[in-house]
From TrEMBL:
One GO MF term attached to the UniProt entry: prephenate dehydratase activity
Reaction catalysis annotation: prephenate + H(+) = 3-phenylpyruvate + CO2 + H2O
Protein name stated in the entry: prephenate dehydratase
GO CC list: cytoplasm
Pfam families cross-referenced by the UniProt entry: PDT (PF00800)
Enzyme class: lyase
E.C. no: 4.2.1.51
PANTHER family: PREPHENATE DEHYDRATASE P PROTEIN (PTHR21022), PREPHENATE DEHYDRATASE-RELATED (PTHR21022:SF19)
InterPro entries: ACT-like_dom_sf, ACT_dom, Preph_deHydtase, Preph_deHydtase_CS
Organism: Actibacterium pelagium
Length: 276
């Protein structure tokens, strides 16, 4: 049976590219929202979900960290996609024909230098793949899309300019989610453990909670905070560490963390991607 993987966006979106690159034989299922993506897996209509969490240029993807703990899914892998942005136009059109470039609000600023150089106006679209589909339907050489080459292939567009992003290290990290937590895998390299926690309301609680990782030699690669419940005083933390919960030093660090927290949930344990 063909594996199915859900993603947010339309066919040709960068999340679709992540699915295509990581699971080339799987069936990719487009979803309207991140919540729909999660529900598609929870309902059994897909086996996995591909969710973007951060981009080297744009930063954290809004709402994802809030969604993860409540999703009912677990992280089973990660992948990194180099975001190459291309100017896509209708067949036989030329760069000098383009007056407007359509793309997602996040992508437009990443190509500001290119657009300014060629006197092209940026226009906001709900999705970069949707922009490619619209440009194909409009069939007007004055309109182009800023999107992936995969989107160009899907909607029959030509690449008028390749890799037009202002920064040459533009990369998005994706988390691969599944219904079940898998603690059996060890991988060939480092393991990553992701979790969320809330500290107890005592002085220096966060400082004390972090101390266990330092004293036990556990490398924490990410620590982010965000508000929960609409209150400024209710803060939840998301963290990634190197290691497996069964490793003696990780177990000691997590035990110490639990003592200073009121809430601790492991979101996933998975092999570190070689691109990390």
């Amino acid at each position: 049976m063909t594996q199915k993987i859900a993603f947010q966006g339309e066919l040709g979106a960068y999340s679709h590219q992540a699915c295509h690159d990581t699971y080339p034989d799987a069936e990719a299922i487009p979803c309207r929202t991140f919540e729909d993506t999660v529900e598609t897996v929870r309902s059994g209509k897909a086996d996995l979900a591909m969710l973007p969490v951060e981009n080297t240029t744009y930063g954290r993807v809004a709402d994802i960290h809030r969604l993860l703990p409540e999703s009912g899914l677990h992280i089973v892998g990660e992948t990194f996609v180099r975001v190459h942005i291309n100017l896509l136009g209708i067949p036989d059109s030329k760069l000098e024909d383009v007056k407007e470039a359509h793309s997602h609000l996040v992508l437009l600023p990443q190509c500001a230098g290119f657009l300014r150089k060629h006197n092209i106006a940026g226009r906001v679209s709900p999705d970069n793949a949707r922009a490619a589909r619209d440009v194909a339907e409009w069939n007007d050489p004055a309109h182009a899309a800023l999107a992936s080459e995969l989107a160009g292939e899907i909607y029959g567009l030509d690449v008028l300019a390749r890799h037009v992003e202002d920064f040459d290290n533009n990369t998005t990290r994706f988390l691969i989610m599944a219904p079940d937590l898998d603690l059996t895998r060890r991988g060939e390299g480092k393991m990553i453990t992701s979790f969320v926690f809330r500290v107890r309301n005592i002085p220096a609680a966060l400082y004390k909670a972090m101390g266990g990782f330092a004293t036990n030699g556990v490398n924490m690669t990410k620590l982010e905070s965000y508000m929960v419940g609409g209150a400024f005083t209710a803060t939840q933390f998301y963290a990634d560490i190197e290691g497996h919960p069964d490793d003696p030093n990780v177990k000691l660090a997590l035990d110490e963390l639990a003592y200073f927290t009121s809430h601790l949930v492991i979101l996933g344990v998975y092999p570190s991607d070689r691109k990390r």
